[in-house]
Amino acid sequence: MKLCGFRISNYHNKVRLVLLEKGIAHEEDDACKPSQEAAFLERSVLGKVPFLEVDGAVLTESDVICEYLEDAHPQRPLLPKEPLARAKVRELNRCIELHLELVARRLYKEAFFGGKVSDETKREVEHALEKGVRALARLARFEPYLAGSTLSLADCAAYVHLPIVSMASRAIYGRDLLEPIAPLKDYLRMLGERECFARVNRDRRDATAAMQR
Ligand SMILES: N[C@@H](CCC(=O)N[C@@H](CS)C(=O)NCC(=O)O)C(=O)O
To answer: Model pTM?
Structure first.
């Protein structure tokens, strides 16, 4: 199987974390950028990354890819066995991606790429982010992992997405909207000490530095 994307992409890095944590042998094309060109759309239906080439098929959508990896490679599970506990991990994932990352994404143009975002968008996003943060604060357990005592897909999502949400909110509002979730900083630091997480983070930094050169 081959993971295609690039190492600055938070969604790409989430899948990479899952592959590495589960110890799944794989190849990587890490120079694969999103595109709306016809040839690329043949590979990735929405022109996005990451996507996974596996057994002659292509899978898109990082959460679908992660669940496929979990089903096809049950070793070192990142989802609990019990249905309700599995659903709680997915609930955390959904909260982080749909109600925090996707919302904050509307700020990235100004926060990271020198563009401009309207004041109306900033107000809308701030309000929506506050709701997402409130929800995450209720759902997150930090025992010591996000969903409980074992590492899960929710930790992979949190590690790649939440620092970007913090950075974007600091850039636009002059404050970190995730700050009210007090245990978050130590939790992210703890994850960063795991070998696979440290590796993905190091590769992300190297890729960012290479891009800025
Ligand atoms: N829901 C998608 C989101 C992936 C995504 O937005 N990837 C970004 C790179 S981080 C991308 O390809 N953006 C280009 C675009 O949206 O056209 C997933 O989970 O895989």
So the answer is: 0.97
